[in-house]
Amino acid sequence: MIRSRPHATSTWPRVLRWPVALIVAGSALFAVPTAASGQAGIGGQAGASGQTAARPPAGDPVVVSLGDSYISGTGGRWAGNSDDFLFDRGGTDRAWSRVEGELLGGSDRSEIYGRTAKTGCYRSDSSAINSAVGTSGLGLGRPVNLACSGAHAANVLRASEGGVGLHGEKPQNDQLAALARTSRVKLVVLSIGGNDLSFPDLVFRCIRAYTLRDDPCRAEQQKRLDVALPAMGAAVGAVLDDVRATLAGAGYADGDYQLILQSYPSPLPTAKEDKYEGYSRIFKWTGGRCPFTDPDMTWTANTVTPTIAGTLARTASRHGAQFLDLGNAFDGHELCADGTTHPKGDPNSTDVEWVRFVDYTGQGDYAESLHPNFYGQQAIGICIARAAALHRDATCTGTPEQGLRGVRVTAR
């Protein structure tokens, strides 16, 4: 099945925090020491005091993820979506287990998210950076996931630059600074900006429009996005500068590591690519759990995702970062996409959705809704690994009905 859509670049941030319907819901000043200040410059020159500049440590090489829920791994518990509420939910609930000999089992989210299941960062075992190293063979070092569900740009900035911690943790760049002094940072991948656009409110309003049979949300929300995008771009640019400054403070020159800013994959297909097209409207609510009007689905896929990605691409260019366009990374595997199924057991990446459905029934955690699931996170990991190998701006595209083997990365 061939799909045509304007090439998207994406965005769906966040922590999704849902009340009865849902609410979805991840900057910096550049300050490089100079020889004039009595400290050595980035290039390793001696300062006025005659001391030699610090250099990157000779410790173990690491690749690092920073930012929000789309890279922390929220949603990684689920290997597809299932209508089954019992036991392992049709094989999709990776947190479910049963002791041999016992009749009933249970789900323990810490099996997937570790201690962050309780703190709220939701860093999964299949997060994009873990998948980039594990399933995709990124040979740059061990993965370190510092991203946190719900993060805004200010949660990445160092405290000295106005950043604030989240869920009891220090700002992410302060954590990066400590890591960079003991381990050799080879790659930093950042996903941020969606929460700065207040996407929780946008998604809630779109779901409300569907539920209450109101007019589509797109007209009202497009105006709000147009106003908010410039500030989001500036905030993300500040984060990129602060990543550079953080690593410069640990003795790194810009050429000592790669810095990638990724966009967001579209979680929804266009209305024409929706498998419930032509069905009674109730099917999208009870069966697909994708409660969005047809105009809003198409708007999300063809306008919101590429518009936000365009802002991120320009920001990456202005601040010296590599850009990874994930807009169509889930092509053919978005929520309710034509050709996908709800498995009854033994799910696989070929014919399931790569996005967690809107879980308003309590099968799992509302905060996981509309996030990349186990397969979606592996797909992003493949995108990261192949983009890192290109050493230039890249576009990642999925292929309907081909699963993870159909993920393609090309230079932009």
What does this structure look like?
With 412 residues, the protein is α/β, with parallel strands linked by helices. The protein has ten helices and nine strands. A seven-stranded mixed sheet has the order 4-1-5-6-7-8-9, sandwiched between helices. A two-stranded antiparallel ribbon has the order 2-3. Helix 4 packs across helix 10 and helix 5 packs parallel to helix 7. The longest helix has 32 residues. It starts with 60 loop residues before the first strand and ends with a strand.
Give me the count of strands. 9
- How far apart the termini lie comes to 24 Å
As a percent range, the share of strand residues is: 5-15%
Task: Determine the CATH superfamily.
Answer: SGNH hydrolase
**How many domains comprise the coordinates?**
1
Mean pLDDT equals 87
Radius of gyration over alpha carbons? 21 Å
Q: Can you tell me the CATH class? A: Alpha Beta
Oligomer description: single chain
Helix content range: 25-40%
Low-confidence regions: 1-52
Number of helices, where a helix is a run of at least 4 consecutive DSSP H or I residues:
10
Using the coordinates shown, work out and report the CATH topology: Rossmann fold
Given helix and strand content, the structural type is alpha/beta
Q: What general outline do the C-alpha atoms trace?
A: globular
Widest sheet, order of strands: 4-1-5-6-7-8-9
Reading the helices and strands in chain order gives: EHEEHHHEHEHHEHHEHEE
Organism: Kineosporia corallincola
Protein name: SGNH hydrolase-type esterase domain-containing protein
